[in-house]
Predict the structure.
Amino acid sequence: MNTLSSYDKESSFTPLVVTPSWKQIFVNEIPLILICSISLFVAGIDNIPYATFIFWTGVILLLYLAYTLLYLLRIKYIITDQQIIYIHGVIGQAKDYMELYRIVDYREHSSLQQQIAKIKTITIISGDHSLPEFKMYGISKDSHITEEIRKRVEYNKQRKKIYEFTNR
């Protein structure tokens, strides 16, 4: 027998799927991108000593950057009415779950590079011992994900009758 509380019947939250922007790779890896580009360029110049070593260093860095980009592009944050699901991995895939009612606080942050790329990082502080701090990288600056998560957290805290007490 399936019984739903009045809050479950009222839930009109549709799952949100959020993916990081590809621009985040430039924010994270700009020094390596520059070194890789310079090494591949320099290795092509005639009569350069250690040209083979420089070339293979550039190739290895390029492979690392390609893997990092692929990893970033395969990340998904699925925000349901009860939890956040973080899916990540290239060869193998892992899923981490965070119950929304355990979320305590939120923070949005943009480094200088992220501000130029018009992206941000959302940090979620949780009472969950396995995932006390969770970061969502490369989120569009115009996104209102934090407000949407806040609404869903409040809904879940009311649904589970969880109240926060503070000393003032």
The beta strands are 16-18, 76-79, 83-88, 94-99, 103-109, 119-126, 133-140. The longest strand covers residues 119-126. The helical segments are 6-10, 24-43, 51-73, 112-117, 145-159. The CA atoms of residues 53 and 158 lie 62 Å apart.
